[in-house]
Each structure stands twice: as structure tokens, then as C-alpha cells.
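sry for the spam today, last one i promise. C-alpha cells for design, 388 residues
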């Protein structure tokens, strides 16, 4: 029986992917094999020695001490792309709210008083104050071309916008999923003078903190619109507010309200709605539950933020999973321990990612406990599991 600790409310659609006959799931449970969470901050949490996997039902993992988990051989999973449509739709809504002045126009209309005839006259007199512009022909800069950024870029192309993308870490697989008309920016700075809108879809890490600062805002077109549905801290809000008040920028739409942004003309703040749809919550929970289950039961890894992607079909015999520091001669030492015990390797796969490596081994017979201990004693081994 696998034990799963939930630190937030997880969609029932995801929990149903963990069969009750083999999984015990609770918000309070001793010796969990896995943790499922959304926004719960784990940095100050005491990590159970039984823990093997963490599943984040979302994309960002800032609330999880990933480096610490890697040191203990614990795989951390997320759900990239599961909430991409929800965020994409909100980016579209943000662009329309900004360019058509929907927020202030709505506020104007809802506060009209008098008879219907008087309201009608006030509407005709006041609508000129909220005139905006349209999206086709405008240029959108997309910073970060992961699942969400790619979806946003393709949507903008369909709307008749010109799109410039920037992502130094873009993979070949990711590039295939982007419209061929999307232009690649040589650098972040090179993109800024070209765009009418710019949207950010990157994690908050050292290199992205305040990446759009006062100096870079000055490089942007007059009348540009900035959108941030990624993470608070990526943009220098004071620089944006100063530029809005100086009429340098046209608008700022974000998911992160603050006192600094209150009452500033051109600012639209939303209460962190990015992935807050039932569809996205279901999709994220289903994806992460399925991948955590496959890892616990079969040792396979997909959509982990710290371990390499590994898949090996099950064969007859016993499966061993091994996480270790990415050092030379590790596979040879593991194979020697198995050979010394008279165990024949039926199938094996070994992959690395940064400082971590991961090995799946199928052997022909049951694995004695002393063999597992011998492998675990190899310098650099982080965790060893035997799967039924």
C-alpha cells in the first residue's frame, strides 16, 4: 500500500488516478511515499525519511526545496502545459482589457445614474474617453517559450499579430510546436524596442528576478503594454508605474496586486487567476498523479524538474531504481554488486541530468536485502528502491 500525503486540496479527477486498493491518501498521514501539493510552502517542512516523490499540481516549483530533494534522491514532478490553455486565455483577456480600456470603461458604465435616456446621453458623451486600438498588426513579444509561451505565441499569430519569441533554453521539440512565422529574438534587449505588447512566461529564479528593470523599460516603444501572468518579482513594478505615470507605457496587466499598483491609471490587476479554472486544476492533478504513480510503481520518470526523463517497459523479474550523483564508474559499481550476488541483468537504462543520474535495472531474481544495502553503501548513491 502506497501512502500519499496531500498538502493542499487536490482535484478529485487527479486523486481518482490513484486506485484506493493500492493507495492510501490523506491530508494527515504518517510515513508517506509521496506528497501532492499546489501552493503549500515546503521549505520549512520536515521531510519524512519515507518520502520518494513530490508532485506539484501546477508548473512553478518555487514552493518546493528542489535542491534539498535532489540531495536526498527524491524526485519532484510538476505539470507543465496542463494549465497552458487557462493562462493563454487570460493573456488574451489581458491584451483586450488593456488595448480597449475595458476596466475603466466598465467602471464608468456601472456608475452611471439617471433615467435610461440620461444614461444613453452620458454613454455617447463619455465613450470617447475609452477609445483604444486593435490587436491585428501589432507585435507581441513572448519571453519564455515553454508550453504556455508557445500556446500564447501561436494564439497571437492566429489573431493576426506579429510575434517575437525569446527563450535561450528552447528545445528542438519545443521549437517544432511553435508557428514557423514566430521570429526569434537575438536577445531579450533586442526584443524590447520592437514590441507593442510583451508577456512573460518564465520561472522566478536568480537570472529572471527584475529582468524588466528601469533601464530596459526605457528601451521599449512608447505606448507599449506589459503583461505578467508568470511570477511576481520578474518585473520591477516601480519602474513600470513610473513609466505609466510619465505616459511612456500604455498599460500593465498582471496577476499580482500590490499597494504600489493601486489606483494607477493603466494598471489592471487580477487575483492570481492564471490557472484558476476547474479544467486546469483537473488537468494538472491528473498529469501529476499519473506520473507520480508511474514512478512509484514502475520507476519511470516523466515531467520531473530535477531527475532525467527515463522510461523502460517492465520485464519479468525484479526492478531496482537507483538515484545517485552523476559521477564516473557508478553503473559499473552497481553492475558488479549485482553480479557478485549472482543476479543477471535483464534490462537496464541509465540517464543523467546535471548533477543527478538515475538507473533502472531489471534483474532475473528477487534481490536480497544485503545486496540493496551494498548498493546503497556505494559512495554517491542517494536512494535505492526495489519494486514488486
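last one done:
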Amino acid at each position: 500500500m502506497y501512502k500519499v500525503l496531500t498538502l493542499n486540496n487536490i482535484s478529485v479527477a487527479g486523486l481518482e488516478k490513484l486506485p484506493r486498493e493500492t493507495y492510501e491518501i490523506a491530508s494527515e498521514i504518517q510515513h508517506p511515499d509521496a506528497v501532492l501539493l499546489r501552493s503549500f510552502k515546503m521549505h520549512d517542512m520536515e521531510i519524512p525519511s519515507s518520502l520518494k516523490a513530490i508532485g506539484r499540481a501546477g508548473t512553478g516549483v518555487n514552493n518546493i526545496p528542489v535542491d534539498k530533494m535532489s540531495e536526498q534522491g527524491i524526485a519532484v514532478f510538476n505539470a507543465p502545459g496542463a494549465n497552458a490553455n487557462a493562462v493563454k486565455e487570460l493573456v488574451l483577456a489581458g491584451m483586450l482589457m488593456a488595448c480597449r480600456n475595458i476596466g475603466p470603461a466598465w467602471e464608468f458604465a456601472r456608475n452611471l445614474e439617471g433615467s435610461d435616456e440620461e444614461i444613453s446621453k452620458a454613454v455617447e458623451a463619455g465613450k470617447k474617453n475609452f477609445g483604444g486600438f486593435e490587436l491585428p498588426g501589432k507585435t507581441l513579444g513572448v519571453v519564455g517559450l515553454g508550453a504556455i509561451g508557445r500556446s500564447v505565441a501561436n494564439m497571437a499569430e492566429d489573431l493576426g499579430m506579429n510575434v517575437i519569441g525569446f527563450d535561450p533554453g528552447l528545445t528542438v521539440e519545443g521549437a517544432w510546436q511553435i508557428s514557423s512565422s514566430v521570429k526569434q529574438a537575438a536577445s531579450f534587449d533586442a526584443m524590447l524596442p520592437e514590441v507593442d505588447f510583451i508577456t512573460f512566461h518564465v520561472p522566478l529564479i536568480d537570472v529572471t528576478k527584475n529582468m524588466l528593470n528601469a533601464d530596459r523599460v526605457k528601451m521599449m516603444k512608447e505606448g507599449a503594454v506589459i503583461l505578467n501572468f508568470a511570477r511576481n518579482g520578474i518585473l520591477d513594478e516601480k519602474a513600470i508605474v513610473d513609466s505609466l505615470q510619465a505616459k511612456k507605457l500604455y498599460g500593465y496587466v498582471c496577476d499580482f496586486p500590490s499597494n504600489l499598483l493601486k489606483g494607477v491609471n493603466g494598471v489592471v490587476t487580477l487575483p492570481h487567476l492564471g490557472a484558476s479554472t476547474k479544467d486546469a486544476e483537473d488537468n494538472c492533478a491528473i498529469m501529476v498523479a499519473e506520473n507520480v504513480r508511474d514512478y512509484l510503481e514502475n520507476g519511470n520518470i516523466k515531467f520531473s524538474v530535477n531527475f532525467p526523463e527515463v522510461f523502460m517497459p517492465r520485464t519479468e523479474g525484479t526492478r531496482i531504481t537507483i538515484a545517485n550523483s552523476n559521477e564516473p564508474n557508478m553503473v559499473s559499481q552497481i553492475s558488479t554488486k549485482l553480479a557478485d550476488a549472482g543476479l543477471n541483468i535483464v534490462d537496464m537504462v541509465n540517464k543523467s541530468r546535471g548533477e543527478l543520474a538515475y538507473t533502472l535495472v531489471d534483474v532475473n531474481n528477487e534481490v536480497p536485502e544485503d545486496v540493496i544495502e551494498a548498493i546503497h553503501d556505494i559512495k554517491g548513491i542517494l536512494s535505492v528502491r526495489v519494486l514488486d
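The chain has three domains: 1-83+276-307, 85-95+134-269, 312-388. ok im logging off now
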